[in-house]
Amino acid sequence: MGLIIFLVIGLIAGALASYIMGRQQDLLMNLLIGVVGAVVGGLLAGLVGIGAYGLIGQIIIATIGAVICIWVWQRIR
Question: How far apart are CA 2 and CA 26, in angstroms?
Answer without folding.
Answer: 24
